[in-house]
């Protein structure tokens, strides 16, 4: 390896104090060639005391002449990275006391907590390189640090919670306003058709008559003016409040923008694909819904696949209250009821839930592939949704793709028209919010695995002879009977003799080998006569620790131990396994 590429550990970095360090060992003065000096006070970093001194020593060695840092920019950048690392460790339940105490689990958790940005990459790699300068850093942690950190290309991520709420609020406000408007005019139309509006109430009568025409033809009563443009008949225009769309056709129909807002809401709540929403057929209530029951809608979803057949899926969404999965479907059906009734009356065979009224004829010029029937558009395109996003939501990326990812990854936490493998690899793993949420789970799993491993590792110390004051137990010697790790300090050990092999206070001499070898043999024999669940619960861990002892002693010593088993050893082990042994 070239000299430039070699990274050697600083020898005795934790014991030597470079000249750049203060007497306290915590203030580093970085003097560069120009004579300028910059100070770094490590007392300000929330490391544990011992680790603070160790990090300051490494930092000082790099700032010393010939240490490698010739510019303040270099030391300042590392200072900032170490500050972030210190703040992270300070927030952990059990931060490491010093660099040698850093574990693979802690490093992995820190690594996963970093953002998938250029700065996140630098935080991981630069801090790893810095800490590896300490010769005391454990080999497993070095191996974990040596794992390649890919430079992940930044792609579209899920919306942050506040962004997602902003999107939903904007879409809900737009659609809710339209729904209330259509509901109010539907009630007036119903009253007019039922004869509840008298002719003497001329204004409401004319409004009702105009709404009836609007429902049947898609337009309020019109005529062709002298300018060859369609104009609203004057008496209706005066009763309605004007000729503008908000006074005329918007009374019973959604606009294109309002339909797009409804589509965004459906994606945000259910995680549907935008094309699926744009082409969604009208959901029908299942026969089981019945009169007087909560409606359960069968939503038929189709997701087109490039080069293959479409993927079909059906979801049942029940409307049992304001925040239920099916409530938005109920509202969508209500808001589009008049448009769908018109389409049925003219024999339209295309079924779409998102039906909207054109604002002007030129709307159709920029809508390739959009279906049309009379003054109505059937369904929406991706561009319709993106146009809405540019007007109401964040402009970074596709509003529909990001809303879908947010719904499926952050909130629903299940696939949305994808396989589980695709959901995990394409949507969940690259998503920073999902990675952040996974950190406590990963740390807990790593901690549990470490604890489980420790329970199956032989913890007693192997010695050649007993020490002064050592007490003998059924299976080993005990160097500190009053302060057992299994009971309160000073109360004496009350743990099972089987736990001696898991106790750091235990001492095993050659005289103990035959008895422990016989115990191992007896546990193996016991395994064949007890149920597996009982074996795993009561005997698996002691047996695993004895397996570890067997590996440590080696085949020759183990065979000799079995040959030297005495009648007394057999009697003690038999009593131990049957609960009859008393020290």
Describe the protein in words.
The chain has 583 residues and is of the alpha+beta class. Helix content is 47%, strand content 10%. Strand 12 and strand 13 form a beta hairpin. The relative contact order is 0.06.
Question: What is the structure about, briefly put?
Answer:
This protein is α+β, with helices and mostly antiparallel strands and 583 residues long. The chain contains 21 helices and 14 strands.
Name the features.
47% helix, elongated, 21 helices, 583 residues, 3-stranded antiparallel beta sheet, alpha+beta, 14 strands
Residue share in helices? Answer: 40-55%
Rg = 38 Å
Number of strands: 14
Unreliable spans: 1-18, 362-369
Strand order of the largest sheet: 11-14-13-12
Indicate the mean pLDDT: 82
The multimeric state of the shown protein is single chain
Q: Strand fraction band?
A: 5-15%
Q: Report the sheet with the most strands, covering strand number, pairing sense and barrel closure.
A: 4 strands, mixed
Give the N-to-C terminal Cα separation. Answer: 62 Å
| Number of alpha- plus pi-helical segments | 21
Shape call: elongated
* Structural class by SSE content: alpha+beta
How are the SSEs placed, and which strands pair?
Elements: E1 27-31, E2 37-41, H1 49-63, H2 72-90, H3 104-113, H4 118-131, H5 139-146, H6 161-193, H7 202-217, E3 222-224, E4 230-232, H8 234-240, H9 256-270, H10 274-278, E5 284-285, E6 296-305, E7 308-318, H11 327-335, H12 337-345, E8 355-357, E9 371-373, E10 376-378, H13 382-392, H14 399-412, H15 420-428, H16 432-455, E11 461-462, E12 471-472, E13 477-478, E14 506-508, H17 513-527, H18 532-538, H19 540-553, H20 555-563, H21 567-577
């Amino acid at each position: 390896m070239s000299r430039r590429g070699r990274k050697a550990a600083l020898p005795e970095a934790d014991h030597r104090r470079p000249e750049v360090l203060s007497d306290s060992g915590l203030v580093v003065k970085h003097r560069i060639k120009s004579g300028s000096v910059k100070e770094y006070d490590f007392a300000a970093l929330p490391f544990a005391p011992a680790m603070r001194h160790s990090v300051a020593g490494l930092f000082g060695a790099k700032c010393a002449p010939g240490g490698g840092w010739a510019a303040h920019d270099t030391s300042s950048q590392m200072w900032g990275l170490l500050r972030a690392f210190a703040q992270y460790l300070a927030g952990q339940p059990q931060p490491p006391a010093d660099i040698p105490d850093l574990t693979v689990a802690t490093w992995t958790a820190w690594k996963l907590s970093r953002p998938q940005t250029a700065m996140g990459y630098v935080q991981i790699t630069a801090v790893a390189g810095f800490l590896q300068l300490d010769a005391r850093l454990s080999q497993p942690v070095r191996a974990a640090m040596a794992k390649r950190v890919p430079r992940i290309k930044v792609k579209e991520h899920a919306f942050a919670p506040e962004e997602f709420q902003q999107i939903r609020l904007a879409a809900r406000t737009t659609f809710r306003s339209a729904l209330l408007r259509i509901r109010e005019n539907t009630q007036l139309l119903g009253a007019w058709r039922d004869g509840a509006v008298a002719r003497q109430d001329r204004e409401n009568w004319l409004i009702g008559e105009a709404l009836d025409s609007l429902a049947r033809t898609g337009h309020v009563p019109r005529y062709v003016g002298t300018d060859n443009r369609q104009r609203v008949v004057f008496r209706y225009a005066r009763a309605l409040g004007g000729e503008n769309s908000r006074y005329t056709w918007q009374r019973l129909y959604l606009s294109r923008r309002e339909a797009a807002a409804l589509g965004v809401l459906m994606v945000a709540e259910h995680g549907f694909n935008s094309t699926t929403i744009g082409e969604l057929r009208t959901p029908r209530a299942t026969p089981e819904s019945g009169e007087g029951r909560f409606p359960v809608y069968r939503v038929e979803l189709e997701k087109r696949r490039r080069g293959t057949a479409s993927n079909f899926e059906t979801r049942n969404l029940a409307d049992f209250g304001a925040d239920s999965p099916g409530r938005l479907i109920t509202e969508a059906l209500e808001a589009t009821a008049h448009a769908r009734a018109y389409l049925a009356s003219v024999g339209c065979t295309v079924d779409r839930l998102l039906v909207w009224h054109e604002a002007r004829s030129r709307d159709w010029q920029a809508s390739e592939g959009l279906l049309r029937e009379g003054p109505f558009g059937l369904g929406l395109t991706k561009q319709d949704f993106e146009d809405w996003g540019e007007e109401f939501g964040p402009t970074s990326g596709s509003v529909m793709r990001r809303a879908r990812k947010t719904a499926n990854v952050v909130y629903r936490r299940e696939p949305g028209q994808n396989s589980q493998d695709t959901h995990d690899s394409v949507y969940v793993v690259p998503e920073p919010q999902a990675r952040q949420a996974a950190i406590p789970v990963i740390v807990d799993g790593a901690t549990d695995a470490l604890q489980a491993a420790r329970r199956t590792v032989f913890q007693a110390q192997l010695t050649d002879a007993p020490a002064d004051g050592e007490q003998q137990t059924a299976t080993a010697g005990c160097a500190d009977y009053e302060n057992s790790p299994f009971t309160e300090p000073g109360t004496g050990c009350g743990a099972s003799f089987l736990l001696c092999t898991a106790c750091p206070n235990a001492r095993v001499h050659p005289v103990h080998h035959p008895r422990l070898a016989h115990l191992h043999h007896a546990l193996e024999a016991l395994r064949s006569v007890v149920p597996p669940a009982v074996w795993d619960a009561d005997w698996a861990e002691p047996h695993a620790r004895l397996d570890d002892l067997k590996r440590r002693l080696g085949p020759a010593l183990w065979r000799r131990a079995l040959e030297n088993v005495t009648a007394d050893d057999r009697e003690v082990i038999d009593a131990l396994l049957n609960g009859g042994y008393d020290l």
